Amino acid sequence: MTIRVVLADDQALVRAGFRVLLDTEDGFEVCGEAGDGAEAVALAVEHRPDVVVMDIRMPGTDGLEATRQITGNPELSGVKVLVLTTFDVDEYVYQALRAGASGFLLKDTDPVDLLRALRVVASGEALLAPTVTRRLISEFVGRPEHRTIDVGAIREITDREREVLALVAGGLSNDEIAEHLVISSATARTHVSRIMTKIGARDRAQLVVLAYESGLVTPKRG
């Protein structure tokens, strides 16, 4: 399967570097480049890529608003957003995850890690390093304006699903959850899917954020 990508960054040199990397790698196709968020949204609508690589800080419509528009458009439900940032703890990144971004990556990441990130996100998984995720959550989740969970939906979560949700929030994959709980990978996937449906999470990345926001999972300090 060819992974179709839109590159959104206000720095032409950054986009050019990513394009050269993807053009020389089998299995990737750059179907558009955007210098701001509005253009990124337009390209997402036009091309329906698998992944939009989104810089946060751009002039005009920034990457945060563009992420909201893409993830909030039902017609773009198959389009994933991978956020790029120069900082590993950035409130804008946290807000992008809340808006439905499927993960984030530092701009200075190794090329091989970028390729892996695109494959992971395109496959529907979340790209969230557990340690960095915990730092983001610990920094911002306690703020009242971030608590947007429907408490009634949380009551629908079973005890087993709470266990699974805690493991998801800890950064475990479905296979790792299955091993930890001594269940099959298929059963783990089913649990995760049901939790996402009950809570109303767009994808696994948003599920992690909502797990902390709801208070079901408490961030560990330090």
Automatic annotation (TrEMBL):
Pfam families given in the database record: GerE (PF00196), Response_reg (PF00072)
Q: Which InterPro entries match?
A: CheY-like_superfamily (IPR011006), NreC/VraR/RcsB-like_REC (IPR058245), Sig_transdc_resp-reg_C-effctor (IPR016032), Sig_transdc_resp-reg_receiver (IPR001789), Tscrpt_reg_LuxR_C (IPR000792), WalR-like (IPR039420)
Q: Which residue positions does 4-aspartylphosphate occur at? A: 55
Membrane spanning residue stretches: none
Q: Give UniProt keywords alphabetically.
A: DNA-binding, Phosphoprotein, Transcription, Transcription regulation
Name the domain of life this protein comes from. Answer: Bacteria
Q: Which GO terms describe its molecular function?
A: DNA binding
Q: What is the protein's given name? A: Response regulator transcription factor
Organism of provenance: Amycolatopsis suaedae
Q: What is the lineage of its organism?
A: Bacteria, Bacillati, Actinomycetota, Actinomycetes, Pseudonocardiales
